[in-house]
Amino acid sequence: MARPRNPLDPLHQGAQVLALHPREKVGWRRERLLAVKLGLEGKLSSKAIAAQLGHSQTTITSWFNLYRKKGIEGLLEQKQRGQGFAPELDESQMQELAVELEKGRWRTAKEAYAWLKERFNVKFGLPQTYRYLKKLGGRLKVTRPCHTKKDPLKVVAFKETLAQKLMDLDLPRDRSLRLWIYDEARYGLAPVTRRMWTRRGTEVVCPVNKQYQWGYVFGALQIGGAGCEFLFSPKVSKEADRNFLEQISRRDPGAMHVIIGDGAGFHHREKGPQEGVPKNVRILTLPPYSPELNPVEKLWDLMKDSLCNRVYETLEEVEKDITRVLKGYWEDGRKVFSLIGKGYLLSKLNAI
Fold first, then answer.
1. What highest taxon heads this organism's lineage (predicted)?
2. Residue 105 belongs to a domain
């Protein structure tokens, strides 16, 4: 059995509300009077009134509570600007909260509130917790997966020693240096779904037709030179990897090409066998589990964005759309520069 509702008009000001509403000129005051008027009529629930006025049910309920306690005067009382909320955490507590926020300790504000309550025995509620999190610059973000075996020290060391690694290769001084970084991505007929813009309250439906056929695309970006190379392959293997290395080497046969890649089993590695590697190619290998060091990863994200929410019948259709995206990079070197940016790769190349 539902709990009976508190009377909405204990102060008996309903007649004044009905008279005042049509004469009120100020928008926010008129809106509150209308909410109470609808509530007094008794035909709509607070949820239905909220939907009709475009507010949350919590907001409508708070207006009703003001009207019950203070009548029309309380309902139409405007909060003084600049008052804000009264701080209940001191400076040291705020610093501790900031440290935990920086660690990404909580998935929800409710978890942060539970921590505050246990740690400092706070008396405020969840709404003020949101205010504190926002005041500290908190944002709800999508996490980037990070393998448990990743060694952050090796990531830092690779960045700091890249220039020395390039010099240690002892490349011929009479040949120009071309520095590349490469990777590969899988594509297929399995659907890629992404968010879509639509109107509020509208269900978004994405057609799918799952088929398990795959292909691979290799991609390389030239550091400081705005060049790029791509290769479609039906599989990943040492042979496919060697074919791509040869393609890069043929771009400038008279130059020495230093190519950076990850340590995947089908890649040629810095300290592995060099059989089949072109004579004008040298390999450097990224630390394990560190995709953030490879700007080609950004390109694959952009590529998948162009393939999302579509149904493909053949791999050739997928490859046609991929080619359309990648073509923009070999026709406009500025796009290659935008992916590489001014990070460690360019700075270390300029340092030698």
1. Bacteria
2. yes
Question: What is the helix, strand, coil percentage profile of the chain, to 5?
Answer: 45, 10, 40
Q: Same domain for 208 and 337?
A: yes
Distance CA 54, CA 75 (A): 18
CA neighbor of 260 nearest in space, from 146, 161, 152 = 161
In a domain, 6, yes or no: no
Residue 61 domain-assigned?
yes
Note whether 119 and 215 are same-domain residues: no
> Are 115 and 156 members of one domain?
no
Distance CA 75, CA 69 (A): 9
- CA dist., res. 85 & res. 77, Å (int): 17
Residue type, 103: K
Specify the DSSP element, H or E, that contains 285: strand 281-285
Question: Domain range holding 33?
Answer: 14-75
Is residue 110, in this structure, part of any structural domain at all? yes
Phi-psi region of 226 (alpha: psi -120 to 50; beta: other; left: phi over 0): left
Residue 238 CA, distance from chain mean position: 33
Full pLDDT tens readout for the chain, 352 residues: 444 557 899 999 999 999 999 998 888 899 999 999 999 998 899 999 998 888 899 999 999 999 999 999 999 987 655 555 556 889 899 999 999 999 889 999 999 999 999 999 998 889 999 999 998 999 888 777 888 889 999 999 999 999 999 999 989 999 999 999 999 999 999 989 888 888 878 888 888 888 999 999 999 999 999 999 999 999 999 999 999 999 999 999 999 999 999 999 999 999 888 888 999 999 999 999 999 999 999 999 999 999 999 999 999 999 999 999 999 999 999 999 999 999 999 999 988 8
Q: Are residues 118 and 202 in the same domain?
A: no
CATH, residue 165: 3.30.420.10
Quick one: 50 and 105 in the same domain?
Answer: no
* Beta-bridge partners for 188: 214
Contact (CB, 8 A) for 97 and 89: yes
Helix (H) or strand (E) holding 343: none
DSSP 199: -
Cα–Cα distance measured from residue 278 to residue 310, given in angstroms and rounded to the nearest whole number: 39
